[in-house]
Amino acid sequence: MAEHFPAGFLWGVATAAYQVEGAAREDGRGLSIWDVFAHTPGKVTHGDTGDIACDQYHRLEADLDLLVELGIPAYRFSVAWPRIMPAGHGAVNQRGLDYYSRLVDGLLARNITPMLTLYHWDLPQALQEVGGWTNRATAGYFADYATVVYRALGDRVPFWITLNEPWCSAFVGHLEGRHAPGWQDEAAALAATHHLLLAHGQGVQALRAAGAAEGVGITLNLAWNVPTSDDPADVAAAQRLDGNQNRLFLDPLFHARYPADMLAHYAPVSDFGFVQAGDLATIAAPLDFLGINYYEKHVVQADPTDPTRGALVLPPTGPLTSVGNGSDPDGLRELLVRVSQDYTPIPLYVTESGAAFYDYVNPTDRVTDTERIAYLDVHFRAAHQALAQGVDLRGYFVWSYLDNFEWAMGYAQRYGLVFIEFGTQRRIPKQSALWYRQVIQRNALE
Ligand code: IFM
Questions:
Q1: What is the CATH code of the structural domain delimited by 3-445?
Q2: From the CB of 415, is ligand 1 less than 6 Å away?
Q3: What is the reported pTM?
Q4: Is the distance from the beta carbon of residue 359 to the nearest atom of ligand 1 less than 6 Å?
């Protein structure tokens, strides 16, 4: 029996500016923390950078035409803050706005719905030099930037996502050091968390003031954490990971408070003195939708040797993706149900879900990525089950449209529905892209 999705369910694909655009030094774009990080020896596999990436900046029309050919109804992209405000605040670079205006017009002319993310990790380097996300002022600059972008594109873009995955910006960037700015400082990660959330809240205020009566949201990457046993130590470890990655963001956004267990857990490193009166009310301003990115279930074991959260994520079992993730669609269903039951009744979108595999172009010039089809199929089914359980899920965006710059893993990992031959920039739709087109046409799974 076919599993049908509701009429109007929004199917799409997603990308982010630094991962696909290239043209890193063109038309007045300023430097971002990722330009600096990627150009620092040893930070990215093979020394790859986003200087050229998929060259979408120069190949925009062809990439938009390919979306039509693949039958994609919605495109989630991000705006590069340093293209719009090269110094992070102050002077606006009109050529940057013009590029995104062309992108949005190009989508609308092709009947493709734009979903815009304001911040997908490419902080202007000039702001990093005065503390980046550990500096409270960055939140205010973000709100100014949001106003500028909304004034330019607000009449044409129906979906506005303030931040993509603030957990990664805060913790992968400031504690693990695997992402820009590459710090390893837990107190800094916590300050960054708060200032990112504050930027979101002030950004929402700015968007509303500029006229966004609807279509404003944020995207969180949530993980499903389950203890490996019912030993209380394992249960507590799973709770800590859940607290760090999920509740540290969901609670302030939807309950206007930081979780008590996280405040207690982090007390030795931070007193959360960066939280000022009124901040939590700003952060918890009503939203119109929530984006959820889902990639991982964590099976968690207590680990007293882990200095940060006393937890070990056990290696996943079963078939693995090329970045070593398992395929755990149940986690997606569980998260969607949990968020809608415990946090918010607003519409949800899966704003990213996908997998990297060792794709290659075979002698008949095809990419037969059957693993990706299987992965997407079971995750779409999980989304369908969540709908059946009453979740107000409105759409699903596959990560990613194109193979692209996968941050610290450079071009070594391929998440795209479309294969990119990076030397020539040739685009080759994978079998999964053709399969996805059929899912979208039928609005159903076979
Ligand atoms: O490529 C990233 C994306 O930028 C944010 N979410 C996860 C993806 C895959 O790692």
A1: 3.20.20.80
A2: yes
A3: 0.98
A4: no
